[in-house]
Design brief:
The complex is a heterodimer of chains A (347) and B (251). Chain A has 347 residues and is an alpha/beta fold. Chain A is built from 10 helices and 15 strands. Chain A is globular. The termini of chain A are far apart. With 251 residues, chain B is α/β, with parallel strands linked by helices. In chain B, 36% of the residues lie in helices and 18% in strands. In chain B, the strands form 2 sheets. In chain B, strands 2-1-3-4-8-7-9 form a 7-stranded mixed β-sheet, with helices on both faces. In chain B, strands 5-6 form a two-stranded antiparallel sheet. In chain B, strand 7, helix 7 and strand 8 form a beta-alpha-beta unit. Classes of the chains: A alpha/beta (347), B alpha/beta (251). At the A-B interface, helix 3, helix 4 and strand 9 of A face strand 2, helix 2 and helix 4 of B.
Chain lengths: 347, 251
């Protein structure tokens, strides 16, 4: 077990990635993600670490695809406007089944938007985002400790399923300092057989079809993999849902405030619980199965995850929404007011 | 019986999907010969474009990566940085390199990536049906310049070999043509040189190859070759644009 350290969220992501064996990082500066690039840049040429400052996010994502093709671990981090530029490569890597980890430190859009916390990239991250029928695993930590843990998990899942994995952070989580225990250093993984590894065998990374029948077969094999991921990899945390009349649903930075609000409501005698999705895709629909309650989804968006909540609960009319836009988090008082309004409405 | 000619051993024997008279077939054969002569089939990693050369992954028994449109130099950068022992060759067309991927080739050159880039310039987007490219000649008729390309609308043809030669990270830059036996021999030497440069640890080596596209130009193959000589070469001068003296006679 490692020692607990006080560390910034972005630094925890970078250090954990290095410890997971990711030696190749391709960066393009954008707030609130830039410390991850700076962390790798400070270690460039040490212990085999390679930092390349790409000319665009588009190039950075494609450089990561290149690293993945030779069977090594690569990473890049960005925020919404940059993610948009790189998303062609996410579609490509999904189709070519190249494993990689991409960090999206979400900030408010649309457009250039703002630079504080937001969750408005949910649709883009979880519903494909780029062209074609593909899925990426999306992990949403809510503390610096979880940023460290799920960075390691992201590489493991990417390798296991040969698929890009998105680590969804945000402008509050990435920038804050907390105590965390960092992962133990691991070796770079073995070069897998499918990689462009040279020697006596030769392989091709190609995403062009050979006519509809061949391409349909390829797409169906991807869909089969996505079904397996949906079945096996849902991760969430439930808090006092058993006796709850009202269940709050939140992830990432929003979940921290929501958890505090839940505790205060409990202290005041309200039967409130909470579900915190940790995988945004696959959405943890199993957490909601058979739980016919009133729900309040709280997001730093105009209402995106709430659509998946509605698809997962027994009665979608009992799902309500509270959103905060522009970069600020709601206060516990804001959420108490929202909960009390719901309870009054029910009476 | 004495063998007087055979296909390069590295080639798979797959049918080439290019049209009759197309320069890609010739360039692909030259690359195959070079791979054999240098004995680098197991070390080579070919990064291919979107365009008429995408299918070249079927031609060779070597590792290959068919990159997204224009992104070959970025993908090649990732590969070379992670696996510096590989010989990474990007093979791109003019829509791919000079239009969609202009940023990627410029910046790979600025960084001085240890790559070899073969740039097939046939003055149009071939695969999509002969549309205008940044390399299209003035007054050239294409499906998106039906009255001929005008400088006032689309600018003058871009001279990639000269453009990249201005960048300090460019180790060597040369323009060749596939229009007669002499020039084809020179093209082979230039491509081989670009690969040997990389094997010797040197920075980005660029070879621009003027290449016929009779289908896209709507000409007979023989006229296409003459058009290169009479019209294209005067605008796109052949020769070495940048090359340090010490490597000039290495191959």
């Amino acid at each position: 077990m490692g020692m607990e350290v006080l560390i910034q969220g972005n630094a925890a992501i970078a250090e954990s990635a290095i410890r997971a064996g990711c030696k190749y990082y391709f960066g393009y500066p954008i707030t609130p993600s830039s410390e991850i690039a700076e962390y790798y840049a400070a270690r460039n040429h040490q212990d085999g670490i390679v930092y390349v400052q790409a000319e665009t996010e588009m190039a950075a994502f494609n450089m990561v695809a290149g690293v993945a093709s030779v069977g090594k671990l690569g990473m890049t981090a960005t925020s919404g406007p940059g993610f948009c530029l790189g998303v062609e490569a996410v579609s490509f890597m999904s189709s070519a089944e190249l494993p990689a980890v991409i960090v999206d430190c979400m900030r408010p859009g649309p457009g250039d938007g703002e630079i504080l916390a937001a969750q408005g990239d949910y649709f883009q991250l979880t519903k494909g985002g780029g062209h074609g029928d593909y899925r990426t695993i999306v992990l949403a930590p809510y503390s610096v400790q979880e940023l460290a843990d799920y960075t390691v998990k992201a590489f493991a899942l990417a390798g296991k399923y040969r698929n890009p994995v998105i680590l969804a952070s945000d402008g509050a989580l990435s920038k804050q300092y907390e105590n965390a225990i960092l992962p133990e250093p691991a070796q770079e993984p073995e070069i897998p057989d499918w990689a462009l590894r040279g020697g006596e065998t030769w392989h091709t990374v190609v995403t062009c079809g050979y006519g509809p029948a061949q391409w349909e077969a390829h797409c169906l094999s991807l869909q089969k993999k996505y079904s397996e991921i949906r079945e096996r990899e849902q991760v969430w945390e439930s808090y006092q849902t058993e006796d709850a009349d009202l269940i709050l649903v939140a992830y990432g930075s929003a979940a921290r405030v929501v958890l505090d609000a839940m505790k205060r409501a409990r202290a005041q005698g309200m039967k409130v619980g909470m579900i915190r999705p940790i995988t945004l895709w696959p959405f943890p629909e199993k957490a909601f199965a058979g739980l016919d309650r009133t729900y309040l989804a709280v997001e730093l968006s105009a209402g995106q995850m709430v659509e998946d909540v509605r698809l997962s609960v027994p009665d979608r009319d009992k799902v309500h929404f509270y959103g905060k836009l522009g970069g600020l988090l709601p206060s516990v008082e804001d959420l108490m007011d929202a909960m009390e309004a719901l309870v009054r409405q029910k009476k | 019986m004495k063998t007087i000619y055979q296909a390069p051993a590295v080639m798979t024997g797959a049918y080439m999907t290019t049209c009759g008279g197309c320069g890609h077939g010739l360039a692909a054969k030259l690359l195959g010969e070079i791979i054999d002569e240098l004995g680098i089939a197991r070390d080579l990693l070919l990064v291919l474009p979107i365009g008429c050369a995408t299918n070249a992954w079927e031609y060779y028994q070597v590792d290959s990566f068919c990159a997204l449109h224009g992104r070959a130099p970025a993908v090649a950068t990732g590969i070379k940085r992670a696996s510096p022992e590989r010989i990474v060759v990007a093979y791109q067309g003019d829509g791919d390199l000079a239009s969609e991927g202009m940023s990627e080739i410029i910046h790979a050159t600025i960084r001085g990536e240890k790559l070899s880039v073969i740039f097939i310039n046939n003055t149009i987007f071939g695969m999509t049906g002969a549309q205008m490219a940044p390399t299209t000649m003035l007054e050239q008729v294409t499906s998106t310049s039906p009255k001929g390309k005008k400088a006032s609308d689309a600018g003058e043809p871009v001279l990639m070999a000269e453009l990249l030669a201005q960048i300090p990270g460019c180790f060597s830059s040369e323009r060749v043509a596939l229009n007669n036996p002499q020039n084809i021999r020179a093209a082979k030497r230039a491509i081989k040189n670009a690969i040997v440069n990389q094997m010797n640890g040197r920075g980005l080596s660029f070879v621009e190859v003027l290449s016929p596209c009779p289908t896209g130009w709507k000409t007979a193959p023989v006229d296409a070759i003459q058009w290169i000589e009479k019209e294209i070469i005067p605008v796109y001068p052949l020769g070495v644009k940048k090359q340090p003296e010490e490597v000039r006679n290495e191959v």
